[in-house]
């Protein structure tokens, strides 16, 4: 199959943004489209432009793959679950007078940094439309940070032994569920390069 500079440039851009197996498939499709257009039009420049018009620009193709990625879906799920779990922990702490506990300031700051990092990573995974690898790494980092954050919260509850309540049960259940979501998402994101 013959190539054209416009197509080669397009494929180089996609190779910078998407995993190699995806680019290999896209290359086959774009080159087949170019060959069909060459047969139909006979002019290499017109054939390349027609094939690229049918195929879509690099931004659109990349955004479509990112929207469908397991990394973005996992990040979205964890980000949506965040406020629900956070509110249940907040309500539990407020009703149990948790702010008067002996948790050191450094521990509170560490939880805040973990929370901020998780949110930043998950938002990055959801918002980035141009770099598949960035989305994947941000989703992995966000899922790992969420799992650590919830584990820290569960460990803190075990050491403080607050009075049992329905709110505590909801918060504990939310954290356990979110840990399971994060742990389940990590292998799926890793496997899909």
From TrEMBL:
Keywords: Membrane, Transmembrane, Transmembrane helix. The keyword Membrane applies. The chain crosses the membrane at residues 75-99, 105-125, 137-160, 166-190. This is Uncharacterized protein. It comes from Microbispora bryophytorum.
């Amino acid at each position: 199959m013959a190539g054209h500079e416009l197509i080669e440039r397009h494929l180089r851009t996609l190779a910078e943004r998407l995993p190699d197996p995806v680019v290999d498939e896209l290359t086959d499709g774009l080159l087949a489209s170019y060959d069909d257009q060459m047969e139909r039009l006979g002019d290499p420049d017109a054939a390349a432009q027609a094939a690229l018009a049918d195929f879509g620009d690099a931004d659109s193709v990349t955004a479509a793959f990112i929207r469908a990625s397991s990394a973005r879906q996992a990040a979205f799920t964890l980000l949506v679950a965040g406020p629900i779990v956070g509110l249940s922990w907040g309500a539990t702490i407020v009703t149990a007078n948790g702010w008067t506990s002996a948790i050191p300031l450094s521990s509170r700051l560490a939880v805040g940094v973990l929370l901020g990092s998780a949110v930043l990573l998950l938002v990055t995974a959801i918002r980035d439309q141009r770099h598949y690898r960035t989305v994947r790494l941000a989703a992995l980092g966000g899922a790992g940070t969420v799992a650590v954050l919830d584990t820290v919260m569960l460990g803190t509850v075990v050491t403080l032994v607050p009075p049992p309540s329905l709110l505590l049960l909801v918060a504990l259940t939310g954290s356990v569920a979110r840990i399971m979501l994060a742990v389940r998402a990590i292998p799926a994101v890793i496997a899909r390069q």
